[in-house]
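User: Structure please.
Assistant: Input sequence and predicted structure:
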Amino acid sequence: MCEAFQRTASIDPDAVAITLTMKLERKPIMAKYANEIEELYSGELPPEVHEPSEAATVQPA
């Protein structure tokens, strides 16, 4: 059985702007958490996470 790992981050809703419909405003989030967002999407994996082997990847039919 294969389990997927995801990188996540917590955001303090009191520290950022929220719309009337209780959604986080994108621009303030991007500005305030730019370093954290960059780290989440960087190509570098933590040492305990390994790239899948070629045999383990799904090939299109």
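The mean pLDDT is 73.
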